Amino acid sequence: MTPPRLARRVGSLLLCAYLAGAAVLFFWPSGSRIHRMNLDFWWQTRRLFGAPPGYGPDQAEILANAIVMFLPVLALCLIFVRVKPWVWVLLAALASAGIEVTQGFVLPHRKLDLTDFLANTAGAMLGGFVGVIILRFMGSRVPSDPEDRSAVD
């Protein structure tokens, strides 16, 4: 198995594990686990980068929501290079809408939050954009010989 193919397989497995863990958190009956994670994220970002004015737990939650969708969309763009990045962005936005609707109408101790949806979608768009940049950079490094597929397989 060539290194790029192995990397795609390992990346796919890690992505599946990430999405499974995220699904458990998103659909957990109470939001206390996510709230605790957001507070930890806020504390760690303050510790590492300082505390800019106006940066509190609510802003850290928005940043965390963007990162939650940025990572998988970027990974999907890089693993499944034949699918257009906008498809992953659209699917991430639809998934975020589904998560928020489920939290708002199905889970009794959760609430629908438009800010979460917007942050998730912004993160997905950023992930798709970075994916396009990386893919363009990688494309410029692919050998011009059509018989030599070692750089892409």
TrEMBL record:
<feature type="transmembrane region" description="Helical">
    <location>
        <begin position="12"/>
        <end position="31"/>
    </location>
</feature>
<feature type="transmembrane region" description="Helical">
    <location>
        <begin position="86"/>
        <end position="105"/>
    </location>
</feature>
<dbReference type="Pfam" id="PF04892">
    <property type="entry name" value="VanZ"/>
</dbReference>
<keyword id="KW-1133">Transmembrane helix</keyword>
<keyword id="KW-0812">Transmembrane</keyword>
<feature type="transmembrane region" description="Helical">
    <location>
        <begin position="62"/>
        <end position="81"/>
    </location>
</feature>
<keyword id="KW-0472">Membrane</keyword>
<feature type="transmembrane region" description="Helical">
    <location>
        <begin position="117"/>
        <end position="139"/>
    </location>
</feature>
<protein>
    <recommendedName>
        <fullName>VanZ-like domain-containing protein</fullName>
    </recommendedName>
</protein>
<dbReference type="InterPro" id="IPR006976">
    <property type="entry name" value="VanZ-like"/>
</dbReference>
<feature type="domain" description="VanZ-like">
    <location>
        <begin position="17"/>
        <end position="131"/>
    </location>
</feature>
